[in-house]
Specification:
Order of helices and strands: EHEEHEHEHHEHEHEHEHEHEHEEHHH
Oligomer: single chain
Strand order of the largest sheet: 3-2-1-4-5-6-7
Shape: elongated
CATH superfamily of the largest domain: Glycogen Phosphorylase B
Distance between the termini: 15 Å
Number of strands: 13
Largest sheet: 7 strands, parallel
CATH class of the largest domain: Alpha Beta
Number of domains: 2
Amino acid sequence: MKLGITCYPTYGGSGAVATELGIALAARGHEVHFITYEHPFRLPHFLPRVHFHEVDIGRYPLFEYPPYDLALAVRMHDVVLSQGLDLLHVHYAIPHATSAWIAKEMLKEQGRNLPVVTTLHGTDITIVGQDSSYHAITRFSIERSDRITSVSQWLKEETVRAFGCGNCRVDVIPNFVDPTEFHRAKHTNGLRAELGGGKRILMHISNMRPVKRLGDVVRIFAQVREQVPSVLVLVGDGPDRREAEETARELGVLGDVRCLGKIDEVAPLLAAADLYLLPSESESFGLSALEALASGVPVVASAVGGLPEVVQDGVTGALRPVGDVAGMAAAAVALLEPARWSAASAAAAADARSRFATADVVGRYEALYAEALQQVR
């Protein structure tokens, strides 16, 4: 198949999943065309059967805010025709599903009935889509998609609840992880010595938005550090990074906090970690938690959204209510006990590989594409 993929190319879970999906599809013999406004952050610049098409956003003086959605629709239309694409797979409902529908309507003039698959990732439904300014167009775009997927059962139910899409078929296809890359034994422990210096390593990776509750990450760490010699490694960047550093300073733990900034290749870092913290306000899936689990890193997280579908409380990590800093800290301390940690680490890696391996999940997408192509014929 010749497939077009559109996603947000910057640091974040939906873009990472879309990029890894494209890479995996190309490795299985498909031709993949990324159509985005910049090169996706996890996409190597040269891969067989992988192509990148930049969306040119004009800077006409009339537009205070250039209409990216229209520019994207035109670029989709052009790439479909010039490359002979069979299908468009868009990640994130707004504006990508809307742009894909416009492109599909334009293509009818050339006698093409192009299937559009939309994957819902989270905030496109829980925050952006439910804003009154976007609710109607989000529902319209979802309903006009030929096939719809969500990354968790929780997100599927939230979509139906928020938009009343009772007649929409939503297939749950979870995020996935490459068990050969996110494997503790694959990476050397040099980073462990450099980052931890003999202390236990707690880690958090995100775009550091308010929904990630970065202050709670620091507060949990501070309580753990009182009982277990440890360091906190923060990977990524975003609006709450400076506030988190200030919280660490106020709590007297800044000297044991390592802020590494944005790093594309996180597998070696996770292989050096002992515990992963994700006390988010909301998570539709929690890709970073899955990558940690596959790396043999138990996860302490909020019991919200799709996280209970990823983290098995008491087996591969611990789930506590949002904002329960003391509860999460206590769970973290318990998990760091050597025998408990060894059992949880082994269970985490085994569970991630058995339920979320790349080959299995990508195979489900291939089957969905085949159904979508048959549907429009």
